[in-house]
Amino acid sequence: MQASDRFNINSQLEHLQAKYVGTGHADLNRFEWAVNIQRDSYASYIGHYPMLSYFALAENESIGRERYKFMQKMLLPCGLAPDREEE
Amino acid sequence: MYLYNLTLQKPTGVVCAVNGNFIGGKTQEIVVARGKVLDLIRPDESGKIQTLYSVEVFGTVRSLIQFRLTGSQKDYLVVGSDSGRIIILEYNKERNVFDKVHQETFGKSGCRRIVPGQYVAVDPKGRAVMIGACEKQKLVYVLNRDTAARLTISSPLEAHKSHTIFYSITGVDCGFDNPMFAAIELDYSEADQDPTGQAASEAQKHLTFYELDLGLNHVSRRWSEPIDNGANMLVTVPGGGDGPSGVLVCAENFVIYKNQGHPDVRAVIPRRADLPAERGVLIVSIATHKQKSMFFFLLQTEYGDIFKVTLDYEGERVSNLKIKYFDTIPVTSAMCVLKTGFLFAASEFGNHALYQFQAIGSEEDVEATSATLMETEEGFQPVFFQPRKLKNLVRIDQIQSLMPIMDMKVANLFEEETPQIFTLCGRGPRSSLRILKPGLPVSDMASSSLPGLPNAVWTVKKNVSDEFDAYIVVSFPNATLVLSIGETVEEVSDSAFLDTTPSLAVSLLGDASLMQVHPNGIRHIREDGRVNEWKTPGKKTIVKVGSNRLQVVIALSGGELIYFEMDMTGQLMEVEKHEMPGDVACLDIAPVPEGRQRSRFLAVGSYDNTIRILSLDPDDCMQILSVQSVSSPPESLLLLEVQASIGGEDGADHPASVFLNAGLQNGVLFRTVVDMVTGQLTDTRSRFLGLRPPKLFSVMVRGRRAMICLSSRPWLGYIYQGHFLLTPLSYNALEYAASFSSDQCAEGVVAVSGEELKIFTIERLGEAFDESVIPLRYTPRKFILLPKWKSLVIIESDQGAFTAQEREESKKECFEMDGTNENGNAMDIAEEEDEERDDAFADEQYGYPKAASDKWASCIRILDPKKQGLDSTTCLLELQDNEAAFSLCTVNFHDKDHGVLLAVGTAMGLQFWPKRSITAGFIHIYKIVNDGRGIELLHKTKVEGVPLALCQFQGKLLAGVGSVLRVYDLGKKRLLRKCENKLFPNNIVSIHTYRDRIYVGDMQESFHYCKYRRDENQLYIFADDSVPRWLTSSFHIDFDTMAGADKFGNVYFVRLPQDISDEIEEDPTGGKIKWEQGKLNGAPNKLEEIVQFHVGDNVTCLQKASLIPGGGECIIYGTVMGSIGALLAFSSREEVDFFNHLEMHMRQEHPPLCGRDHMTYRSAYFPVKDVFDGDLCEQFPSLPYDLQKKIADELDRTPAEVLKKLEDIRNKII
């Protein structure tokens, strides 16, 4: 990489995308966007204990189970990725 | 509208808890995080949990861990919060606060996916701390000491791994080798890219060890190995000579021991016999106990069963892992094993408990070990057990917890002076109706009847150095009764007190002599038994007395004051006389200040509505120093020293002030500050206490002088964590009171009321409410009041539960099996059944057996709150066929002769996953029979969705069925549809009505204002909110205004702008033409947000109410974490300005403890609007005095005036 590239807008964006998970880009597809939103939401539910309790109440599960469930869902929050050809 | 937010009841639920030696020394304390509050608690000698310190941090505490530097005696606390900072706290014993030792910023604030704070872990030797996020980021800080032995913290070292989710992190005990941390990781990068789903199904969790190289100052991934895909939690295993080191990995159904270079040692977690096969067993909370010679772990499953895990090992080789059933207690969010043999169990819902260990599970019990682990073709062979009664633990104390408050109503059903707060709390078998009364809870110690109607009571010690009181003296209209305090309290006659006359005062005089003042004189009983009697001159009688240990002032009829002092020889000598202009109503002398000869001031109240301060100094004896006129003749006076703050280094720079308290005949308590030098009275405050003139008495509370005021109910004025609080006691009206101290009861109060002598104690200081509990069966959802019959209707429903009948049957089956298997003896079965009946609250301990998620159990209950316990339920109707009740209301159909009917909305077979689905929804209509004690089904109407909201409207029933708002009328066999509107976006969760307007709350999209046009029989939406709010509760404020709370912890008010409101009311079409146009995919008009505030906790209920007679109406809210707060509207611009500025200065001068900026916290989702945070303002008294002075100066006031303002506004609310 040349020295001038460091100030290139694209490389700056790349740096941001590497540093902050979920930073978008021009070619972001619907699926990727949704996956990020969902992961953010689950992380927020896990972080806010009252919210976690609220879900636990609704589903009549223990809070620990609910937390584990949300962690597990972060793996595939929106189901399988679409085929690239279809895009 | 400007509002003042004040938390009345701090959150009672617990997020996490850690134990350690935070004070330093031998005692162990527990730090408890309650969401936004940090508490330091510890069990006292008698096993009662006491709160030492409690602080609101204005942030979300997500994780806590304690650590200790080697060689130190004291633990530090690391807090993982939403502040994007790591916080290290140290408890300061002298000032009773947490000191922030370090605060290092590493990221953005808020609970974010990649900002650390979710997990904290420490090296067991206290050399490093790791703080991690759910994904990617982990930071390691090196902890050390500097030359002055202060704790230092390094800059962060990164241990990030992108595209990776973390389930748990913990420190690994490896002695004094380089610190290691273990983490459960799951890499999702491939699963995201793979459309076939193969990568996702092959995604593997790994256990990774991170090593902090102290020499290189660098963190590296040392070791990573695949582990069971159900892994969710890690536990540190002691190492470095104390054990084999490594970690326990808790996974679904398994516990696995793992260490670097060590084969897995796996054991299965025993399962309950009645657990459905498809359900796993997950460990949700852990506690480690470590002694010099041994260690064990207590792991609790999601069903409440605790297992004791031990390891057989030799050196660093673990040969066997044993999991033994220990006991079953309600599911906890955190457990702490204390060295003193206690287990603190912080329940996730419902009361917390303190247990004492009876045994450590060394007896025979169900056990699963790695040695006996059987692997078959279907997988590992499970081990079964049956939960039983507590064997190893015994519960010795409970801490009340309201978590979660499901619904709340404020009403005065008991017809008392103040209204009661009815709350629905808890979940499943632990649910309850709790009735909260404003006031301190009081526990009765003894009560005995007296011969006659007493009018006064005192307690005296025999010697000033005695720890306990010797006598209780009760005065009757014509006699005096002396009771001695020993093992029991009994009457004595050898006390030398005159018993044939009433008494006016009885007290200890000098070091060891006693004084009895009666209408005709003063009787002075010397230590050696000699009695000196002073007689009143002429026909005059003594009417009032004021005394302390060395000074006595009596008022004779006619208004003459005579002042006595005790001289060096112990004689009571007359010093001075003074003629008052009229009869004396009351008088008081403050106690002799330490190291002084006498107290300088005498306060005298007269019937001419004045209070005078007289000097008792020899130089200007009986000179009037100041006069204060009051609104009504004073009845009782008390001089009380109030050290309102413990600011400054040693507390000395904050001057204590002496308050003159006067109970006036109009029921007002009048308080004013007495200048210690001049005797001038300044800074007056008054508060209405009750219908009777308050009588004031001094008692001891936590070793300090406090004040009891007896009006139509008793009040206690005391100092709690730097605040002077005046709170009612939750007790009957009393006549006369005195402090009481004996062997059995160190700090109590003895009082007379009617013909009764009562002894009680006040234990839980600082609490705002006294609660009584009525147990319920399932998770309560909603309730309504039937004001006509003063009863409540409660709907309860639980998902994944069996109905009472099914449970009963399975229990019977289970017993039959047991009986026949063992010895086939029928007698045994009968016995066991008896036992089961004794153990009526067993379900509360074990929880209900789990059923499939499409099973529902539900009931409708009518309850008379005046009765106690189970008797209070007058009618209980269990719903059948997986039907669950979700909404209810009373409805009065017009032109029908049924009177008040009860409508209940139910859903049959409701399921949330994979998509919300139901078999059917119903609206039941019940007739109320038996004077509101029972209900009778009239008919049941099938609807197509879940009716989540019901409301009466113009003699019809309004129902929100899914996204449809519908008007029903009553038919013979079913409800009849009259009109509907299908334009609501998601699900209707609340309906309020006022005149012809209908205020509909949508589950995701805030409020919609509707109108019903009778002539066209049409419902239409004329205004809605522009912000998508996930409503959790709502309340109708006025014609144009609604208050709501959303799922993210915000409270907000919306208002229809005045001009639009007028337009709609004046428009003959009611804005209908406009409605046809619409705006932004919604209604033509938009509501304006006028108030916005982030509470930081899910608000589940809102209500407008006034908690004190004559107090301002405020919005009361209850939250999931079990806290109750109030929003009070300011009444004047001046007050708004004051609190606005005070809040601003507090934000600047006193930033919150856990590093979250106050303003951004209160604006977490939307910018805070027009609400001032009383919780922050009320931290003002805890500031050092110079800081208080600085802030007060900026506000052009004195600190005392600021304190008075804070007190005033609190008094308006509660």
Automatic annotation (TrEMBL), chain A:
<dbReference type="InterPro" id="IPR017089">
    <property type="entry name" value="Splicing_factor_3B_subunit_5"/>
</dbReference>
<dbReference type="InterPro" id="IPR009846">
    <property type="entry name" value="SF3b5/RDS3-10"/>
</dbReference>
<comment type="similarity">
    <text>Belongs to the SF3B5 family.</text>
</comment>
<dbReference type="GO" id="GO:0000398">
    <property type="term" value="P:mRNA splicing, via spliceosome"/>
</dbReference>
<dbReference type="Pfam" id="PF07189">
    <property type="entry name" value="SF3b10"/>
</dbReference>
<protein>
    <recommendedName>
        <fullName>Splicing factor subunit</fullName>
    </recommendedName>
</protein>
<dbReference type="GO" id="GO:0071011">
    <property type="term" value="C:precatalytic spliceosome"/>
</dbReference>
<dbReference type="GO" id="GO:0005686">
    <property type="term" value="C:U2 snRNP"/>
</dbReference>
Automatic annotation (TrEMBL), chain B:
<dbReference type="InterPro" id="IPR015943">
    <property type="entry name" value="WD40/YVTN_repeat-like_dom_sf"/>
</dbReference>
<dbReference type="GO" id="GO:0000398">
    <property type="term" value="P:mRNA splicing, via spliceosome"/>
</dbReference>
<dbReference type="InterPro" id="IPR036322">
    <property type="entry name" value="WD40_repeat_dom_sf"/>
</dbReference>
<protein>
    <submittedName>
        <fullName>Pre-mRNA-splicing factor RSE1</fullName>
    </submittedName>
</protein>
<dbReference type="GO" id="GO:0005686">
    <property type="term" value="C:U2 snRNP"/>
</dbReference>
<feature type="domain" description="RSE1/DDB1/CPSF1 second beta-propeller">
    <location>
        <begin position="443"/>
        <end position="762"/>
    </location>
</feature>
<dbReference type="Pfam" id="PF23726">
    <property type="entry name" value="Beta-prop_RSE1_2nd"/>
</dbReference>
<dbReference type="InterPro" id="IPR018846">
    <property type="entry name" value="Beta-prop_RSE1/DDB1/CPSF1_1st"/>
</dbReference>
<dbReference type="Pfam" id="PF03178">
    <property type="entry name" value="CPSF_A"/>
</dbReference>
<dbReference type="InterPro" id="IPR058543">
    <property type="entry name" value="Beta-prop_RSE1/DDB1/CPSF1_2nd"/>
</dbReference>
<keyword id="KW-0507">mRNA processing</keyword>
<dbReference type="GO" id="GO:0005681">
    <property type="term" value="C:spliceosomal complex"/>
</dbReference>
<dbReference type="Pfam" id="PF10433">
    <property type="entry name" value="Beta-prop_RSE1_1st"/>
</dbReference>
<keyword id="KW-0747">Spliceosome</keyword>
<keyword id="KW-0508">mRNA splicing</keyword>
<comment type="similarity">
    <text>Belongs to the RSE1 family.</text>
</comment>
<dbReference type="InterPro" id="IPR050358">
    <property type="entry name" value="RSE1/DDB1/CFT1"/>
</dbReference>
<dbReference type="InterPro" id="IPR004871">
    <property type="entry name" value="RSE1/DDB1/CPSF1_C"/>
</dbReference>
<dbReference type="GO" id="GO:0005634">
    <property type="term" value="C:nucleus"/>
</dbReference>
<feature type="domain" description="RSE1/DDB1/CPSF1 C-terminal">
    <location>
        <begin position="857"/>
        <end position="1180"/>
    </location>
</feature>
<feature type="domain" description="RSE1/DDB1/CPSF1 first beta-propeller">
    <location>
        <begin position="14"/>
        <end position="376"/>
    </location>
</feature>
<keyword id="KW-0539">Nucleus</keyword>
